[in-house]
UniProtKB/TrEMBL annotation:
Pfam hit, one: AAA_27
Protein name: YhaN AAA domain-containing protein
Assigned keywords, A-Z: Coiled coil, Membrane, Transmembrane, Transmembrane helix
Highest taxon in the source lineage: Bacteria
PANTHER family (UniProt xref): DOUBLE-STRAND BREAK REPAIR RAD50 ATPASE, PUTATIVE-RELATED
Residue ranges that the Swiss-Prot or TrEMBL entry lists as coiled coil: 188-232, 389-425, 537-571, 765-792
Signal peptide: none
Upper taxonomic lineage: Bacteria, Bacillati, Bacillota, Bacilli, Bacillales
Length: 984
């Protein structure tokens, strides 16, 4: 389908305008911003698909009342015209066919094969703002794009799929509560539970009425029994409360019967005795303390004397302890050196491992590495590198010579096939010499021109001849010089041959030039040739001469290549000899240093410095080992002194450390010193205690005399009897007072007759407690029974009230049936939506599989062309990454790593590929609106070339504001939006 012409009655800024798109080329609609390009683009879409009324009003012209126009379209051999007016026929199109028939909107949709505006914009139309979409494609978004552009647009299809998912989620979720079907299922479960409860409760209503009466009678009986038990408990509680008083009264009477009625005792005897005793008690305590201290002091002095060390052994221990700080200092030094040795050993091993050489400390110690050795190894490395470079250069020269020789031989063979025989050339020359010339001004001018051209060519040939002669002579001199210097016979023989070739080439070229001079300069006579024939013969002669000249030049070049080959062989021999001498130098160094056999000479200088470092580390380790041995000898002497001291004490150290041994000796000395100090202290305390004991005995004598007088007055012999008699006196008085108080208390509890009965038979506390406990248990049980019966009565009452207030069972059944019917309808709706979603997903997968591979192949082809084959492949996005492109060297970049221009090229290639694939079924015009804003002139040139090919099978219309785009396009139909001027 091709748009031939667009006639606008009124649409936006365009009124009564006509645009021609009939050229079979890419049509470029050019104009500055706000010139009406997008309005024209919208008009074409409006004519094909129509717009909603509100959108049409947006394009109503300011100077015209009409909105619409005509669009002439050719499809194959048929041409038809679409007429669409906004307010006519409700905006539907009227189509005039080539045979005069009129068709409607349905016929147009049939010609468009169901294509809608959204589909067309997704496949055959895009603008600059769409270029950003390429970076947003994630995972399976490419499949959505292919599906969208092939059907009704990715956004609409995605919205339908999301709408189906949302509707399914609103209806039902396996673990949800809010969906409608989940709520209805929960409600049905509640209704069924209520119905089951109603059936059970209805059967027990009469039984519960009878149960209420029985529970009320039992509650009254229990309350009466609890009241009686409460009264009995009050009487028992009084007896229990008064029982101690009764028992105390009885006890007081018996105690009074056992005490004498008259008791003799000194006035205030106890107080006097206590005062004397208080004065005497501290003195007796002091005597006891002094005596105990004396005994303890004597015992301590004896024990401490036995624990003291001999004087010579004590002095020996002090000498040993004086060595402790020195031992600790030596130990720290030894540990530091030991750690340093371990670290140096690790460093040494690590360095050896890095070098990967079979070498140990003994070999390192014996190595003789001088400055000369380092310079020699560096020299070997540098010479070897130079030899490698020479070898590589010779190989490249060899390949280059072979390549040049092959190329020259191919060219020589081609020239030989084109060159004619000498006889044929001679005949052509004779024809030119003897042709009859008509001396007209034009002929004379032509001859003059030919002669002038020949002079220029003659100068070039002479210059070329001199150059070749000079090169060959110089080459001959070089060959001769090299042959003499190196005594190489082959070069001496070759040099004269090259010189002879140079002379021969010079003479041959001079003869050829003279012959041509004779041909061009002599006057024309002889037979007549037409101008056309003469020109043809001259061209043939000139061509043959050029071919012969080129053939001679090729022969000279082949000779130079042969000379270069001889030079190359000589250089190869020299290099081989140098390599042999280098191998001898390397073997000599490897004999002197066997470990170098494991290393390439390139690394020898680096290994030299590493070996020097290893020698330095080994030297430091040897010094530390000697120092460590000296320290260990000094430590051994100190440990020997400690063991000698321990033998005097007969100690067994077992596996104790020296530090613990020092501590043991220190504790022993400290114990000796402490014992000596304590012994002196106790001797001083013993003397002071004996003096204090004598003074206390003098203070006790007058107090003892007065206490004996008190004992005689009470008619007792000791202190215990004195106190016992005083207690009897006080007990008699307190019992009488207590008896009167108890009698008064009992009178307040019981009446006299009840009290006399109780006093005759005093109850036991155990009996009262047993009665009380028994009545308590009975009361508790009765109260529990009462509470239980009350709860049962309340429960039964509540059940009866609930049963009386509940709805009828039939109402629940009816409600259940309604809910089940509603659930059934929702289940049908859910199943329909689920089926629709699965069918949609299946259709998406089928369409994606159909077009994705074809689209990506064509995208790769277009993108390769647009980037001048800088990128070879385009890979579709996956779940982990977006679009990926691959360069010629195999490097891959994702789309976000590309420049903006390259990203635009990728998107343009993708959209063109989709359009071309879809156009096999829908051959509609392809429209682009400012799609190349980020393209430079080179990229623009490539895309215009691509569009020129696509336009051969599909119409392409480009709306642009870039002047260089239409300038670069070679074949174009150009529409300029400027004062309605159209240029085709």
């Amino acid at each position: 389908m091709i748009i031939q012409r667009a006639t606008i009655f009124g649409f936006g800024k365009w009124v009564n305008e006509t645009f021609d798109f009939s050229e079979q080329q890419v049509t470029y609609v050019y104009g500055e911003n706000e010139s009406g390009k997008s309005t024209l683009h919208a008009f074409l879409l409006f004519m094909l698909f129509g717009f909603p009324p509100k959108q049409c009003e947006f394009y109503r012209p300011k100077t015209s009342g009409q909105i619409g126009g005509r669009l002439t379209i050719s499809q194959g051999e048929e041409t038809f015209m679409i007429e669409r007016l906004h307010n006519v026929r409700n905006g539907e199109a009227l189509i005039y066919t080539s045979d005069g028939e009129q068709k409607g909107e349905a016929w147009l949709k049939e010609q468009l094969k169901g294509m809608t505006l959204a589909t067309y914009q997704s496949v055959f139309s895009f603008s600059a703002k769409d270029l950003l979409k390429i970076t947003e494609m994630q995972a399976d978004d490419l499949g959505e794009v292919i599906l969208g552009v092939g059907l009704t647009g990715a956004k609409n299809l995605y919205a339908v799929e999301k709408q189906l998912e949302q509707q399914l989620g609103v209806l039902f979720k396996p673990s949800g509560k809010k969906p409608l079907m989940n709520q209805r299922l929960t409600k049905l479960q509640d209704i069924q539970a209520q119905a089951n409860d109603w059936k059970r409760l209805e059967a027990t209503y009469q039984e519960k009425q009878a149960q209420v009466k029985g529970l009320e009678q039992a509650i009254e009986h229990l309350k009466k029994n609890i009241q009686e038990l409460h009264e009995q408990r009050l009487y028992v509680d009084k007896q229990k409360h008064a029982l101690p008083i009764i028992q105390a009264y009885h006890t007081v009477e018996k105690q009074l019967e056992q005490i004498p009625k008259e008791i003799t005792f000194p006035e205030a005897g106890v107080e006097r005795w206590e005062r004397l005793k208080e004065k005497l008690l501290p003195l007796k305590s002091e005597i006891a303390v002094l005596q105990a201290n004396q005994t303890r002091y004597r015992s301590e002095i004896k024990g401490l004397t036995e624990a003291l060390l001999p004087v010579d052994l004590y002095h020996e221990g002090k000498l040993v302890m004086e060595e402790k700080p020195r031992y600790e200092q030596l130990t720290e030094q030894a540990e530091a050196i030991s750690k340093s040795l371990q670290k140096q050993e690790q460093q040494f091993v690590h360095s050896c491992n890095e070098l990967q050489l079979p070498i140990d400390r003994s070999e390192i110690d014996q190595l003789q590495l001088s400055v000369f050795t380092e310079k020699n190894w560096k020299k070997i490395k540098e010479d070897l590198d130079q030899l490698d470079v020479k070898q590589l250069q010779l190989q490249l020269d060899k390949k280059q010579q072979a390549k040049q020789r092959s190329k020259l031989m191919e060219e020589k063979q081609a020239i030989q096939e084109r060159i004619t025989s000498e006889q044929q050339l001679h005949d052509w020359k004779q024809q030119l010499q003897h042709s009859a010339q008509i001396f007209t001004p034009s002929s004379i001018e032509q001859q003059s021109t030919n002669q002038s051209n020949w002079k220029k060519q003659q100068q070039r040939k002479r210059k070329q001849t001199r150059l070749i002669f000079s090169v060959l002579i110089i080459a001959a001199m070089l060959l001769a010089g090299i042959g003499i210097g190196m005594d190489y016979t082959a070069l001496l023989l070759l040099a004269p041959l090259v010189a002879i070739g140079a002379v021969f080439q010079w003479n041959w070229q001079e003869q050829s030039i003279k012959e041509m001079d004779r041909l061009f300069m002599q006057p024309t006579n002889g037979s007549y040739l037409s101008d056309t024939e003469r020109k043809r013969v001259e061209q043939l002669v000139e061509q043959q001469l050029q071919l012969r000249t080129r053939l001679e030049a090729i022969d000279e070049q082949l000779k130079r290549i042969d000379v270069q080959a001889l030079k190359w062989e000589e250089q190869q021999l020299q290099l081989t000899d140098q390599m042999r001498r280098m191998d001898e130098r390397i073997l000599a160094e490897q004999d002197a240093y066997p470990f170098l056999t494991h290393l390439a000479p390139t690394y020898w200088p680096d290994v030299f410095h590493s070996l020097k470092q290893l020698q330095y580390i080994n030297g430091r380790m040897k010094e530390d080992e000697e120092t460590y041995a000296t320290l260990m000898q000094q430590l051994a002497i100190i440990r020997s002194n400690i063991n000698t001291f321990a033998q005097h004490e007969k100690w067994e150290w077992s596996e104790q450390t020296v530090h613990l041994q020092f501590n043991s000796i220190q504790k022993l000395l400290e114990k000796h010193e402490a014992a000596a100090n304590q012994c002196s202290y106790y001797q001083t305390q013993l003397a002071e205690s004996e003096l204090a004991l004598h003074q206390v005995n003098q203070q006790m004598k007058p107090l003892t005399v007065e206490m004996n007088q008190l004992l005689e007055t009470a008619h007792v012999g000791d202190e215990e009897a004195f106190y016992e008699k005083e207690n009897q006196k006080q007990l008699q008085q307190s019992l009488l007072e207590k008896k009167a108080a108890l009698a008064s208390q009992l009178a307040s509890f019981f009446p006299k007759d009840m009290l006399d009965a109780i006093m005759d038979k005093i109850p036991r506390l155990l009996d009262l407690e047993q009665q009380q406990e028994k009545m308590k248990q009975t009361t508790t049980q009765l109260e529990k029974d009462l509470e239980k019966h009350q709860q049962m009565l309340a429960t039964v009452h509540a059940e009866i009230v609930g049963m009386e207030k509940r709805e009828d069972y039939s109402t629940l059944v009816h409600q259940k049936e309604m809910e089940q019917e509603a659930l059934h309808q929702q289940a049908k709706q859910w199943a329909t939506l689920k089926t629709a979603k699965e069918m949609l997903l299946q259709a998406k997968r089928s369409y994606q599989n159909k077009y994705l591979h074809k689209v990506m192949e064509r995208t790769t082809l277009y993108f390769r062309e647009l980037t001048a084959e800088a990128y070879q492949y385009v890979y579709p996005p996956t779940a982990e990454q977006p679009f990926t492109v691959e360069t010629n060297d195999g490097t891959r970049f994702d789309v976000k790593e590309l420049s903006q221009g390259t990203m635009d090229q990728l998107y343009v290639a993708l959209r063109l590929a989709v359009s071309v694939c879809i156009s096999e079924e829908h051959a509609l015009p392809f429209m682009m609106d400012d799609a190349f804003v980020h393209f430079d002139s080179i990229r623009t040139k490539r895309v215009t070339s691509l569009l020129e090919r696509i336009v051969q099978r599909q119409q392409v219309i480009v709306f642009t504001c870039k002047q260089d785009l239409v300038t670069l396009a070679e074949k174009r139909s150009f529409v300029q939006m400027l004062n309605s001027i159209r240029i085709h």
